[in-house]
Amino acid sequence: xxxxxxxxxxxxxxxxxxxxxxxxxxxxxxxEVGITDAIPVSHEGANSVVLLVRVNxxxxxxxxxxxxxxxGAQAGGDSLxxxxxxxxxLAALLDIIRRExxxxxxKGRLRGCQTKSFSELLLGPETAQPKKLTGEQSNxxxxxxxxxxLKFFRRIEEGENPDLEIGRFLxxxxxxxxxxxxxxxxxxxxxxxxxxxxxxxxxFTPNQGDAWRYALKTLSAFYEQSxxxxxxxxxxxxxxxxxxxQRFSSELMAHLLADIALLGKRTAELHLALSSQSDDAAFxxxxxxxxxxxxxxxxxxELTCRTLSLLRARIADVPTEYRDQSxxxxxxxxxxxxxxHKLLSAPIDAMRIRIHxxxxxxxxxxxxxxxVIIDFxxxxxxxxxxxxxxxxxxxxxxxxxxxxxxxxxxxxxxxxAGSSVSSGKSAALKGLAxxxxxxxxxxxxxxxxxxxxxxxxxxxGTGERAKLLQMYLLAKAFYELGYELNNRPAWVGIPLEGxxxxxxxxx
Length: 507
Known about the structure:
This protein folds into four domains: about 1-85; about 90-205, no CATH class; about 205-290 and about 350-395 and about 420-460, Alpha-Beta Complex (Aminoglycoside 3'-phosphotransferase, Chain: A, domain 2); about 290-345 and about 460-505, no CATH class. Helices cover about 45% and strands about 20% of the residues. The radius of gyration is 24 Å and the shape is globular. The chain is an alpha+beta fold. The strands form four sheets. A seven-stranded antiparallel sheet has the order 5-6-10-11-9-8-7. A four-stranded antiparallel sheet has the order 1-2-3-4.
């Protein structure tokens, strides 16, 4: 069967891959696609095959994707169909973990593993029918009876995925309560002894959606109520921050800002947990070194120059109202590079720890009363080894603060259906959005620093903390600018405003 699949399916792989939402190589030219392994998976009479496929591009490094398929008949031979459409395959994945099976393939094998949390979640054979989640990006996920959720990695790399490594550490060593418990996983063992994480099984957390949706829903309702304000009634930049934040004292906003403060507390508790085991080399805090700082400066400088080169090339695609901001950011390239150099060329009295690595409102589930932090794999586009490097936890903090800035403007750039916030009113509300993002940052940071207290991984002086945080905020904003230029030019105003705000010291 496998030899037949190789003959009939291989030619279909390139077009199949480019049609999938989880395929991350759409912007690159594919040179060749080849099957490196095929692992038959059977359950209740249904036969599927997990294909490991190597994708070579005209430029850059190759990728390996995991593609579970079933054989579908069509005129002229077999067709390629995703096995995630079949409940038998989804049930088989859980069974591999439940039985801790070894499933042999042509050149390697899949192996199921479980933790003590597996039995605690009562994941027996009677578990309800699996349900595939929709609307995903880089991975595929399945819920089993509202008890557990399995994340199946589509692009796999050699080594243990940080999502599994950090999740298991937080579950069983640090005992951090605000992440889903790890119940098990599936790993791929190659013939040469190397392994890769194929899937993770975690506790399913009942929730009201992620914190991004919660913030957008609340802000949209607030803007609806405020849409009749004149510009004179909006917060002004020359107001003191405490006065500015009084504008958000309504019950609706007070509840959201209180929850954001709680999120600051949970984030600090996460970082304290991640730095709690000095006897585990993978998690023991490490000091900043000049070698690390030099590499970080080079990375930030390369990001800045690459992004501004893209901005120059695509400035015609930037909406007219953001052209002036674009030119100002371009003009300040030398100043930006000097900012990075000045901070990173001097010793930094702080520690580096394992962090989330891709922290924003979309990575936090809102239960209605608290938060659960998810998805610790880091930025999927970065190599796995790079995602495991210890960093300042202020990188996570910067990611969340930038997410507040995006949340403030998203309802204005993309009003929900039925919204009365017209484009004209939206322009008048921009000052309100800026003010809210600053107040949200204050609420988050206040509780984050209070909970962190004298954490050894943070600089001791408030001035040094602020400088380090500003550096990570600036780097994040440049990353966002590059993303928006490539994907949503209409949104470039958010990172442009962020960059200019960070380059302009507050009086």
